[in-house]
Amino acid sequence: MAAHGCNYSALLLIICSVSVFIVADSQDTTLSGGHHAAAVEDNPQAATEAAGKTSEQPAVEERSWEATEVEEATLHEAAGDKQDTPAPETEAPSPVPQPKDDFQEELVIRPLHSGDIYASFQFRTLWETDFMSGNKVSHYRLFPKSLGQVISKFSVRELHISFTQGYWRTMQWGQPFQPAPPGAELWVWFQDSVTDVDGTWKELTNVLSGIFCASLNFIDSTNTVQPSASFKPLGIGNVTDHRFLRYATLPREIVCTENLTPWKKLLPCGSKAGLTVLLKSEKLFHSSFHSQAVHIRPVCQDWQCKTTSWELRQTLNVVFDLHTSGQGKREWSLFKMFSRTLTEACPLASSSKIYIDITDDPQGELFELSPATPLLSQAMVLGDRRTFSVYDLMQPVTFGTVRSLNPLIRWKSSEGDMLRPLLHAERYVAGYGLQTGEIHTLMYNNHPYRSFPVLLLDTVPWYLRLYIHTLTVTSKGKDNKPSYIHYQPSKDRLRPHLLEMLVQLPPNSVTEVTVQFERALLKWTEYTPDPNHGFYVGSSVISSLVPSIVAMDTNITMDRPLFSSFFPCKEESSFFVRVYTEPLLVNLPTPDFSMPYNVICLTCTVVAVGYGSLYNLLTRSFQIEEPSPGLAKRLANIIRRMRGVPPL
Amino acid sequence: MAAPLTLLLIVAVTIRAALYRSSLADLISERVEVVSPLTAWKRVVEGLALLDLGVSPYSGDVFHETPLIIYLFHFLVDYAEITFMLADVITAVALYLTVKEYNKQVFRKQKYALEADRYPLDCLELIRSPKEMFYIPLKVAMFYLLNPFTILSCVAKSTCGLNNAVLSLFILATVKGNVLLSAIFLSLATYQSIYPLTLCASALLYLMQRQYIPVNFRRASFWWFIVQYAFMYLGSLFVIVCLSFFLLGSWDFLPSVYGFILSVPDLTPNIGLFWYFFAEMFEHFRLFFLCVFQINVFFYTIPLSIKLKEHPVFLIFMQLAVISIFKSYPTVGDIALYMAFLPMWSHLHRFLRNIFLVCCVLLTCSALFPVLWHLWIYAGSANSNFYYAITLLFNVAQILLVSDYFYAFLRREHHLCYGLYLKRKDGYEATLVLK
To answer: By the 8 A CB rule, do A449 and A466 touch?
Structure first.
């Protein structure tokens, strides 16, 4: 969807500091060349950098700007170098012969306004190969063999899997780079050559369950859906027939070290060198939020898209709590977070960088970063222009004299105000008792003057029977009729409810979606071992193209060239966001689990009473009761019968 | 007689209309005793909503009504309350006419028997007089219309009321001797909820008795009549099912309606025996017990028909009772239908053994249902066993009630044959026992 094409910040590089050679990172060629020009224009101070060229230039300023591609939900990198206005020479991006495979690693650290700190790792392996053609791929270098075999065996076109512990608090932390719902989430696009999609999906989940040591084998038809609009392929290819899409979540999945270890093993450097040495589970899981993911998709190798390659993107996002790990002091360093420092990049990586988000603090008033880095980078992330300090681990000088890198952020003051996220959602269950209930989903549009449509996807297990006629969508007290509803009712013990709708969120409003449900009584063997804990209902997924924050900027007085500020949407006017709500925990009525024998006996007794009394009346007839003979007479008769004499 | 009936109808309609306007209506329509997954009005509305969305109502597991019902309410959804009140009125009037006709026949038969001196002399007090029979039709209508069970069922808009209307029309047509209408209404009732299939036997017995066809397997006329009736019954069933197919364009409704009734996948608590039993059942025995429980409903048809072949109307009553006790999703509306017949057997009261106890148990259980439900579902201070215990007791009471009436009926017949005051051989007063 929109996710594709969002980001390229094409930037200019101003080169500065004396001794630094900037190897403008040799770009993966961007997909869309069209954005170059647009992006270029708005950088007023221009310097030039030709691709792949090292240039030494006299320092103009203290900091250097570097062309960066910045990760985002969309994940398309833009390569960075641009030809530029003042520069006399204009060069087209020159295609440098790419190696067959390529590995990059990076870490983004963003101080959050709540005082927590957000660290996001990304590892990307690109491999120009074709798993789908007849010949078997047997030589693996950087790409993990286990995943390569999965792709070719199950004809996977795109695979996205995430394991998350904790809930991302959008209102305090802003939007994450890679959103993920609590628990496990898996969605897969299959090649259209697959005939038995359900069978393949079942096998695939079992295999992935083994690879990631997770309970993905609990994914079956009762929690799998085929969303019609919410999940579009992120890679190349335009087959969007949702018969080949499967989506499932396991909100109850608990993520821990046993999931991290196999995830790390997929990396070329394992946990031996590079950024991965920071991934120590005793620290990672001592955090407020932990999310690890694997995304596999086909991407274009060059911007004409003549050849495609497979991209494996492994991401790990973690939010460290201010109070538990910082002891309440607002001071962060790599060592404090991960109890490790960095000494080298992964030798197999073609790029290895640390980005620290300093947007909120351009002048260094709010916090102080040490060691100071001369490299700066700007990127559009989630509709906002962010500035990052960059540490390039490929440069030996980064590690300084102590041969180790330990960036440290020390706050000077604790103020600072976060811009509220434009789109935000929450969900809860209303009602009391165990018979019925109502799911409320609240979607907030915090944009001051623009409305935008969102796609809401709800997957509700079959044992909460939704009544779609009770669905109401209201915003600002008025009925807000969804323009598109795709509803698939559940089948008992077979498939869940799927509700997808397209709702227009008016500006600066809360839209409330409510739907009533009825709680089913299950068979006693269908309950979880702790039935009174409740049953989880997976997060709602809200996908939307949100107007970007930069475009929202109405502050005309800001210091900016006049030629750039007449038309309001000069940058990309909207960006793709996916928001996950909380999962729900719903109680169901329970039978008494200690009673199966008793119940079987008692009910059968009642049936037998019915049967018996009717049988009695049906088979017997009325007779006059004759007085029974006395005991002596009866005994005499028995003896007489034994003797063969007629009784008395 | 028309005036009291009209008055009764007006009273009944007023009560219902008042309840529809009150806040109780919502509460009642959620009660599990009153609505089952098969008959809930909420699910009918859901089915209509699904149709509006362009989704087949049978693609999910919420809607289990037959296609005719959904098309009926497609047009009548705005007049639902009137429809349900009308259904109750139709049922009551049909029962009224049925009983009136039946009484005439009973009286005629009794007259012939008296003229033929078939009754023993001391049985005169068992003979029914026209005076005491005069108010029975009205009582039956009253028992149906003013029964709290019927009122609850109507206020909850349970489609059980419609099924009852169809069943009572079937009984009326049968008692009036209209073979074709009887077959058509029976097939409609079967189409709505399989179980009335068992009423086939009683209808056949009654119609044959009326047409003086002896029940004799060697007689061609007997078989010819059965073939005729079966043809009409199956033919109209076929027409109705095909009509549903053409209305809907698919056969989805068969598993969703009849599969649902027979395989009991929905374990929502109700007043029946199935829900808790199958919630607690071991999975590998499930199919076995399912078969046993379902066969149990149909099983009594043949022995009862043999035993009661002279009394098909009592047979209808017995079978309605058996169905409403042992069916998979019973509601109080089903019970109301067979309870309406009780005034018809008021002459059996002297032979009933434990009617007082049974009535007390039924009343107590009816009061305890909502109490224990509240304790389990809302207060959380009781568990499912409490509610289950009450359903057990309620069903035992129903079984005792029915078997008591059956006993009394058989005993009266016995006395009509052998005299009321029987003596033992030694001259003392005899006690009758079943042997």
So the answer is: no
| H or E element, residue A204 | helix A197-212
Question: Does residue B274 belong to any structural domain of this protein?
Answer: yes
Summarised one tens digit per residue, pLDDT across range A550-598 is 666 555 555 556 665 555 544 557 788 999 999 999 999 999 999 899 9
User: Which of A522, A624, A626, A628 should one mutate to test binding to chain B, selecting the residue with the greatest count of B CBs within 10 A?
Assistant: A624
Amino acid at B317: F
A590 touches chain B (CB under 8 A): yes
Question: Which tokens sit at B214?
Answer: 């002896």
DSSP state of B257: I
- Taking Cα atoms as reference points, which of A383, A387, A379, A455 lies closest to residue A422? A383
Structural domain total, chain B: 1
- Is A493 close to B403, i.e. CB distance below 8 A? no
For the segment A93-115, the average pLDDT, to the nearest whole number, is 75
Q: Which of B61, B306, B431 lies nearest to residue A490, judging by beta carbons? A: B61
Return the ∠ at Cα B369 (arms to B367 and B372), rounded to 5°.
Answer: 110
**Neighbour count for residue B107 (Cβ, 10 Å):** 14
What DSSP element (H or E) covers B224?
helix B220-248
Kind plus residue range of the DSSP H or E element containing A379: strand A375-381
Q: In what order do the strands lie in the sheet with A245-250?
A: A64-66, A375-381, A384-392, A351-357, A101-111, A117-127, A308-320, A289-300, A156-165, A183-190, A245-250, A224-225
Interface predicted TM-score (ipTM) of this complex, two decimals: 0.95
Region of B58 (left: φ > 0; alpha: ψ -120 to 50; beta: rest) is alpha
Q: Are strands A22-23 and A54-55 parallel, antiparallel or unpaired?
A: antiparallel
In 3-state terms, what secondary structure has residue A470? strand
Rounded CA gap, A575 and A304, in Å? 23
Side chain identity at A393, as an amino acid letter? L
In this complex, is the C-beta atom of A618 within 8 Å of any C-beta atom belonging to chain B? yes
Q: What is the pTM of this model?
A: 0.85
| Each residue's pLDDT tens digit, A45-65 | 333 333 333 333 333 344 445
Q: Which residues of A touch B425 (CB under 8 A)?
A: 626
Give the type of residue at B236. Answer: S
- How many CA within 13 A on the CB side of residue A625? 8
* Model confidence pLDDT, tens digit, residues A617-634: 999 988 887 777 788 888
Is B97 a domain residue?
Answer: yes
Which helix (H) or strand (E) segment is B231 a member of?
helix B220-248
Q: Which strands, in side-by-side order, build the sheet including A478-479?
A: A423-430, A436-445, A509-519, A464-475, A478-479
- Identify the domain containing residue B172 by its residue range: 2-418
- Distance, in Å, from the CA atom of A147 to the CA atom of A267, rounded to the nearest integer, reads 11
The verdict on residue B431 lying in a domain is: no
Q: Which residues of A touch B378 (CB under 8 A)?
A: 432-435
